[in-house]
Amino acid sequence: MEVLLFGIAKDIVGSSSYTISENAVMPTSVAELKQQLTTDFPELGKLSSLAVAVNSEYAEDGVLLQSQDEIALIPPVSGG
Fold it and tell me: Does residue 24 belong to any structural domain of this protein?
């Protein structure tokens, strides 16, 4: 499962994408994915919010994931 990363999430992970190994336990929901990523990268847990998009649509924690889904991690943004 590949997760695309943007903004500060990309900086924290050190790459524009992160692949969850096929040998690892695959998260089955957005909530499990967030938990796994914050365990692997504790700095992600310090962000004020973290949006997840599944197949180009924002997804709530209860959305179920499939291995072929396109997943993006979108941190809070600021601007003016």
Answer: yes
Please report the DSSP string for 58-76 in residue order.
Answer: EE-TT-B--TT--EEEE--
How many structural domains are present in the chain?
1
What's the pTM? 0.88
**Residue 59, phi then psi, degrees to nearest 5:** -130, 135
Decide if 73 contacts 58 (C-beta within 8 A): no
pLDDT at 37 over 60: yes
Helix (H) or strand (E) holding 44: none
